[in-house]
Structure formats: C-alpha cells, structure tokens
Amino acid sequence: MSDSFRRIVELIRRGDIQISVHGYDEMAADGILAGEAIEGAAAGTVVEDYPNYSKGPCTLVLQRDRGGKPIHVVWGIPRGQTSPAVLVTAYRPDATRWTEDFLRRK
What is the pLDDT of residue 81? Predict the structure, then answer.
C-alpha cells in the first residue's frame, strides 16, 4: 500500500470524504453507488500511485462493488492540504484495455 493511499484510507475511516462532481457523474454513468466506492476502499489494491501529481497526491485503486465486480476509483488529497480524501472518479474498467486482473493496462 502506498503512503498516499494509506493516508486516504485513514481519512475515509474518519468520514473525511468529498466526492467530486466528475466522480458523481462517472459513477452514475456506470451504475456505481457512492457507498460501494467508499466502503470498498480499504480492501482495494493500488494500481497506480501519483504522489507528486500537480493537484495533490492521488492513486488509482482496484476495488470491488457489492456484487464482486471490479471498479477503478481514483482517490486523492488536495495539494497543500491534509484532508479530505477526494473521490475524483470511479468507473468500471474496460476488459479490452486492462489485463485480466484489471491491474495493468494492455
């Protein structure tokens, strides 16, 4: 688990969460419930980590919805701040663009 994601999970556990407008739009488009994305974060697997991203540290995480289907969620922390954990976007990964385990791009 990356340092960024460790901090994000702690913020989520404390309920210090914000969902971006883009995140809500993308979840709605893919039929992902906000609760699923939030509840599944701690059990997620870091796919890509961007600790030095210009808008603040963020990480792409493979999570599972309540039915066990894969979802990718990008979590971040605003640059120069210590909170909140921001759900930037969430989507169902395209199997033609990802390896079978959804951890690497083809």
Answer: 97
Report the amino acid identity of residue 98. W
First to last CA, the chain: 23
Separation between Cα atoms, residue 106 and residue 35, nearest integer Å: 29
Cβ–Cβ < 8 Å for 37, 60: no
How far is the C-alpha of 49 from the C-alpha of 30, rounded, in Å?
23
* 20's tokens: 């971006």
Q: What would the 3-class secondary structure string for the chain be?
A: CCHHHHHHHHHHHCCCEEECHHHHHHHHHHCCCHHHHHHCCCCCEEEEEECCCCCCCEEEEEEECCCCCEEEEEEECCCCCCCCEEEEEEECCCCCCECCCCCCEC
- Tens of pLDDT along 29-66? 999 999 999 999 999 999 999 999 999 999 999 999 99
- pLDDT of residue 67 exceeding 90, the answer is yes
pTM over 0.70? The answer is: yes
